[in-house]
Amino acid sequence: MHEPPEPSFAPGLTARVELTVTDADTAQAVGSGDVPVLGTPRVLALAEAATVAATATRMPAGQTTVGLRVELDHRVPTPVGRTVVAQARLATVDGRRLLFEVTVADGGETVAEARVERVLVDRQRFVERASRAS
């Protein structure tokens, strides 16, 4: 079995995604608290979405990335109706491991900062292995 060719990912790749906070995004709705503000799990999902978007246009056929490790500092509450923007930047490439730095902001205010590590995998083999594990 041969390994796929290394992708052409280089530090500096960026992407941004936006989310306008709705009632469905609140800590109350996602079960991470009892306050009606943007829930931390949604902040994490937004950060991960930005990392996926950063590699999407250069992803080799049959490959994908999966989350491996996350560090997240959620610093400021965001009420329903506000729009937050996650900006991801690929900071380090180490073989198949990709380390991203992500900032989530509401206007000029930093809501959260994250470091997201993803690993490049063969999509079909990954799904088959996961199916056998269950």
UniProtKB/TrEMBL annotation:
Active site: 40, 48, 74
Pfam families registered for this protein in UniProt: FlK
Record SUPFAM superfamilies: Thioesterase/thiol ester dehydrase-isomerase
Entries under InterPro entries matching the protein: FlK, FlK-like_dom, HotDog_dom_sf
Binding site for substrate: 67, 118
Gene3D superfamilies listed in its UniProt record: Hotdog Thioesterase (3.10.129.10)
Domain Fluoroacetyl-CoA-specific thioesterase-like: 21-123
Residue sites binding CoA per the record: 67
This protein's name: Putative thioesterase
Species of the source: Micromonospora kangleipakensis
Lineage, highest ranks first: Bacteria, Bacillati, Actinomycetota, Actinomycetes, Micromonosporales
